Amino acid sequence: MPESASILEVHNLVKQYPSVTAVDGVSFAVPEGTCFGLLGPNGAGKTTTIEIMEGILPPTSGEVRYRGEPVGARFREEAGILFQKTALQDFLSVRQSVALFRGLYERGLDVDEVLRLCALEKLASRDNRKLSGGQQQRLLLAIALVNDPKVLFLDEPTTGLDPQARRNFWELVESIKARRKTIILTTHYMEEAQLLCDEIVIMDRGHIIAQGAPQRLLNEHFAEVLLELPRHEFPDVARKLPLKLIDASDRVEISTHDLDSTLRALIEAHVPLRNLRIRPANLEDLFLDLTGKELRA
Amino acid sequence: MMKRLLAVWHARNLEFLRDRPTLLFTLLLPLGLVVSMGFIFGGPPRPLFTVGVLGSRVDAHANPFLHERYVRFVPVHDETAGLDRVTHQRIDLLLDLAGTVRYWVNTDSPKGYIVEKLLIASDPGARRQPVTGQAVRYVDWLFPGILAMNMMFSCLFGVGYVVLRYRKSGFLKRLHATPLSAFEFLTAQVLSRLSLIVFVTILLYVLIAAIIHFHSAGSIALLLLLAVIGSLSMIALGLTIAARFASEELVGGLLNLLTWPMMLLSGVWFSIEGSPRWVQWVAAIFPLTQVTDAARAVMLDGAGIRRIIPNLIYLAVTTLVFLAFGAWSFRWRVD
Questions:
Q1: What are chain A's domains?
Q2: Average pLDDT of B76-101?
Q3: Is residue B7 within 8 angstroms of chain A, CB to CB?
Q4: Does the structure's ipTM exceed the value 0.90?
């Protein structure tokens, strides 16, 4: 844990539904001023965890503390939230939607300032139902920022956005990070977490399976580089080679300390190398390594 | 709190006013109803005189007058109710055949005048007991009920479905993540709906009164007070229904379950005076009955606040009960 004080602490959180335990004994602390990532595949328990933290869902057991106190009125005044799915009131313009939420808080930013911050000035008078996916997400972010929150929750904010819109959204989040806000982000895009998060928790089936700074986690798990080959070009005979193989859906990954001898062995086994890619390990690999399954599967 | 309440109130008003089809429907439905009912029932009167005969049934041999053509004879159980009907010219003459033949006739009524001549021609000994009072046309009698019924639909369906839609879409969940409380949210919904309904009701009153040449016998201010308290009660009832459910089918079914009996039993279309006692008890529970009865008393009989205060108290108490229950059982999200 970094030395800065925790703004949010999660103690032994459990959430049981009649047929499933969605979150099973999760504990972590979020240092103030950092971007904290909750990662995991669909159904890992990320959204349940974040909604309990937001005070939207009651936990079966365990507790969440905001600045050392149970989540209450102060938290609601100081938190900004972007849910995975949010519908807004019909027939309101972008500006009116933001103004509605501004009216619900004692303190906050000027509506125009929030619109500028989220690059929505030109869309201010447009009906909120007539926005593209990326614009819609920016509006929801604007609403989450309207009370100038100390802590911002973003639940899979870029799911369903095209690459361009996703990159724009990341830039926005970077600019919010620069304002020293604490951000709690759930995502199943590893690239997003690697780019934005200072610290991450990886969840699978309601449990935390890894926790720490992204680069530190990668260094701990991968001293190697990764070689990627298309699966259909990887002959079965090569599977008998003494290599560390990871099977992904469309490709075979070979993790190695010694690139030279691995390449030599592949050539000798007549493995076609024209589509070979060599790259450093990323969080995606880490997840695959930890769980034996792909994140987006 | 006031600021938050105003923010939600304002946004809700905008949403309602911009939802053109719903707005139009709210205005046109009751207008169309009154005009068509007036057309069907108003028109030239049926070619019959109606004479009430005191007693449980009409015995055609009791008096030669009972053989008159073009006169319909209906039994009237109770003298007070009968006199009321003569006063309002819903019957043209009331006859008491027990002992000396007595009759009551409205001296202001042209039909009463003619039917009286017929009676005296066949039974010159009949003794006259005069009554006076302006005629109440069916359309006038219908008018307060139509206004009240429009209010009921707008309150129950408007509020019920809106809250349900907010819950299903996740908008309520998003509001829950802010400092807004359930009570503030519900109160804003009530006030938004209330202001719109009172406005629409005033508009309808003015328009319909102009079309059918209606003049209220009682105080307009009192009617306004009744409209406000009546709307509050029915909005609160709608919120109670929508407080926790997330299924359109269920809420729609519950709302229909409430509105249909109210529409039929509250005496909007026809008087339930002659119905069995238990039906009248059930009807008295409905806010719509209370509003319709009080509105008729004020508009047709010129009743003052003292006569309708029990209705107003009943509506105010039910408002509080419904709102408290609604806030208690309120759910922000779909479980």
A1: 6-213 (3.40.50.300), 223-280 (3.30.70.980)
A2: 84
A3: yes
A4: no
